[in-house]
Amino acid sequence: MVDPNYISGAVWVLCGLLILYLGTYKIGLQGRADLHANYDDDVDPAFVSRWVGGTTFLMGALVVGYGIREMLYGFHPYALAMLIVTLLILSYITKLFARGVGYRDTHS
Question: What is the chain written as a DSSP string?
């Protein structure tokens, strides 16, 4: 029988890899800022791609790290709670970047 921590950890690693692919690769490296649900067309897509891509890289790395941690040490509710709170904060930050917070239009 397979330990449930291995299955759960593998699911977290898979989810983290999906975050890395969609957020970091598609938005960050390919410059597809329009894929973000809160993207404002008035903001430079390079700005959004750079900052959202970097933030989603951190999100994906945290999820992959949590999955590996769960496979090695098992489930711990405090670790999961810290991951979820951190992901919520980083998700909010990506929304701010996609709306243009921190962007200064020098061409106006």
Answer: ---HHHHHHHHHHHHHHHHIIIIIIIIIIT--GGGSTT--TTS-HHHHHHHHHHHHHHHHHHHHHHHHHHHHH---HHHHHHHHHHHHHHHHHHHHHHHTTT---TT-
- Residue with token string 């390079």: 46
- pLDDT-derived band at 32, boundaries 50, 70, 90: confident
Global pTM reads 0.88
**Nearest Cα to Cα of residue 16 among 56, 43, 46, 50:** 56
Give the model confidence (pLDDT) of 60-86 as tens digits. 999 999 999 999 999 999 999 999 999
